[in-house]
Design a protein that fits this description.
globular; 5-stranded mixed beta sheet; 15 helices
């Protein structure tokens, strides 16, 4: 892990740039090109391992964005991918081969669950899924051929917290590599490498981009691992477009201020929902009722901008609530400046089997909200009126 030169707020704005260089463009240029010309064949040979050969291998715009993410995470290097799933699949495929075994949390993003449980077995790689907070179960799941421990914290959508120190200790004891999806936390709230985790993955589509206008994945870690992942990315071809990388850089510059606002608003909203009669349960790491609140506060600077809650009613009540909101757009994704609402059973976890969803606590009544940067009082008022609509509709149905 690299030593941080500055605090996260400064790294978000200045990370990846040469602070000694003057008389250059303040905004990173977009190298919107697929290929680069050379003077002669000797130069061509030298260009291949650089970011000025062919954009599937790398690109100068990518390089700045990757350096910014690496600096935020305290990593040796980072790589961009065309999507979060591209980052997950390319990284896992770079680290395992036929006959290997993976230990993974059961509470992970639905796309990652499907890849690990349904796609990797076709390639001869098996995964054992374990409970997020049970590290004795993690220990028991390790086999002689286990190579990787896959983590996510906070988890989507039930906001469970992985104990990063314990996870890293189990992995070190068995000489396993560790990879974490830290999308919900962002490096503003959590830096897993400081806890001994080897690789950090982000869906850059979310908080890094911040404006719901790009698709991106990113992985950061130490140099030897990143070289393997770069080779795999080059072969599989999941490289990000230069213009999208430029948008990503612009988003990262405001990451810290957006996340701070989202931390504050999400906590206030969680506290409001926790006290509402029509809400059965609230999932938010920094809310008082969260069973892992102390661990979350120990590992994180803020609880993040995502929270979920169960409506005290039916799945139809949850649907009605999401359709009665005005300031929360009914849409998947998270991390943008606009607040969003979704039902995980229909979006992030629709692709996995119902029995798997049940084990993860993803019920028909579960509503997930991604808090934007609007005024928290306005967002709470919108939730209050939507909950009132559900309650009124249900009372009328019962009377009828």
């Amino acid at each position: 892990m690299k030593t941080h030169r500055h605090r996260p707020e400064t790294e978000a704005v200045r990370g990846g740039t040469d602070l000694t260089r003057k008389n250059g463009p303040l905004a990173t240029p977009i190298y919107q090109t697929s290929t680069f010309e050379v003077i002669d064949n000797d130069q061509q040979t030298r260009a291949v391992p650089t970011d000025q050969f062919y954009t599937r291998y790398g690109n100068p715009t990518h390089t700045v964005a990757e350096a910014a993410i690496a600096e935020l995470e305290g990593a040796d290097a980072a790589l961009l991918f065309a999507s979060g799933m591209g980052a997950i699949t390319s990284t896992v495929l770079a680290l395992v081969r036929a006959g290997d075994h993976i230990v993974a949390q059961r509470d992970i993003y639905g796309g990652a669950m499907k890849f690990l449980s349904q796609w990797l077995p076709k390639l001869g790689v098996e995964t054992t899924f374990v409970d997020t907070a049970d590290y004795e179960q993690h220990e028991r799941a390790v086999r002689p051929n286990t190579k990787l421990m896959y983590l996510e914290s906070p988890t989507n959508p039930t906001l469970q917290i992985a104990d990063l120190h314990q996870a890293a200790a189990v992995a070190k004891n068995h000489q396993l590599l560790t990879m974490i999806d830290s999308t919900l936390a962002t490096p503003i709230n959590q830096r897993p490498l400081e806890f001994g985790i080897d690789l950090v993955m982000h869906s850059g589509t979310k908080y890094f981009g911040g404006h719901c206008d790009l698709i991106c994945g990113a992985v950061a870690g130490r140099s030897d691992l990143m070289e393997k992942i770069h080779s795999t990315r080059t072969i599989l071809g999941g490289t990000m477009d230069p213009h999208a990388a430029w948008l990503l850089l612009r988003g990262i510059k405001t990451l810290a201020v957006r996340v701070q606002r989202q931390n504050e608003s999400a906590l206030r909203i969680a506290q409001f929902l926790a006290g509402h009669a029509k809400v059965r349960h609230v999932y938010y790491p920094f809310e008082d009722s969260h069973p892992q609140r102390a661990l979350a506060i120990e590992q994180m600077r803020g609880g993040g901008g995502l929270l979920s809650f169960e409506v005290d009613g039916t799945g139809e009540d949850a649907r009605r609530l999401t359709e009665s909101l005005h300031l929360f757009n009914l849409a998947p994704s998270l991390g943008g400046v606009e607040s969003l609402v979704t039902l995980p059973v229909l979006t992030s976890h629709a692709m996995i089997l119902p029995e798997q969803r049940e084990k993860m606590g993803v019920t028909d009544q579960l509503v997930r909200i991604a808090v934007g940067i609007e005024n928290a009082d306005d967002l709470i008022a919108d939730l209050k009126q939507a909950l009132a609509v559900v309650n009124s509709t249900r009372q009328h149905a019962e009377v009828g």
